[in-house]
Specification:
This protein is of the alpha/beta class. Helix content is 36%, strand content 20%. The chain has ten helices and six strands.
């Protein structure tokens, strides 16, 4: 029987998530059975805004970018919203205004249904002067290259933005300036290590929604193989790939 990890390793992320939920409900002593059906998050009364919808399970592959997540600023004693632990779309957060001192996320906003809305929501739920920090993949590294490839393979719907649109510094600055007078963008890099090029392809495709849910999956994997080969480096029996990102750190405008 395939385990959840095996299902994700095979690149069947969407099916794996559904199977995992079914297994949790069927196993006699599973946490889901003990806890009962999941409760819906409380949503403040906000006219014209629909309730939050379930989102891509961003945290399933969080071990890949754990060092980036750990580097996000979390001031001592602050009430911190760990965004990557949430299970719904960030464009509509079920929290009151100014409920936290700090909100942090590794990469989730750029994969929201509405990244501008997600940034606005993160700013809304922190106190005036509170801190918001999140990251976005940039084009130079392996993740950015594959995400751009996926966008060319499956173009976004007209009128919607693609995740890599939010890797552009000018786009981030424009959006952050709507909410903050005190922000900075910090470039960074991350080395991803795999046992082989095949494992690299499997895990990367299982970790990112535009890759995992792509149409004509085999075609996209064939297009991705030379990109992985181009950027891969062999070191101590492992295959390493460099990913690049930018970290946005902003304080909510006080007035």
């Amino acid at each position: 029987m395939l385990s959840r990890r095996n299902l994700f390793t095979l690149g069947l992320s969407r099916a794996a998530e559904r199977v995992a939920e079914e297994l949790d409900q069927k196993l006699p002593d599973s946490p889901a059975r003990r806890a009962g059906p999941p409760s819906k998050p409380r949503v403040p009364a906000r006219p014209g805004v629909p309730p939050p919808a379930p989102a891509w399970a961003h945290k399933h592959a969080s071990e890949l970018w754990a060092p980036v997540s750990a580097a996000l600023p979390r001031p001592p004693g602050a009430r911190v919203l760990e965004v990557d632990e949430l299970r719904f779309d960030l464009a509509q957060l079920p929290f009151e205004d100014a409920a936290f001192d700090t909100a942090v996320s590794a990469f989730a906003p750029m994969f929201s249904s509405d990244c501008a809305g997600a940034i606005g929501e993160l700013m809304r739920v922190v106190v005036p002067g509170g801190l918001v920090a999140f990251t976005a993949w940039t084009p130079a590294g392996i993740v950015g290259r594959l995400l751009r490839l996926a966008e060319e393979h499956d173009p976004p719907r007209p009128g919607t933005s693609a995740p890599m649109d939010w890797s552009r510094e000018e786009r981030l600055r424009e959006e952050l300036s709507r909410h903050s007078d005190d922000f900075e963008l910090r470039p960074g890099g991350l080395t991803l290590s795999f046992a082989s090029r095949e494992e690299a392809s499997q895990r990367l495709f299982a970790s990112f929604r535009p890759l995992a849910w792509a149409t004509r999956q085999h075609e996209l994997r064939d297009l991705a193989a030379p990109v992985i080969d181009e950027l891969a480096r062999d070191a101590d029996g492992r295959v390493t790939l460099r990913a690049t990102y930018v970290m946005a750190v902003a304080r909510r405008r006080s007035a």
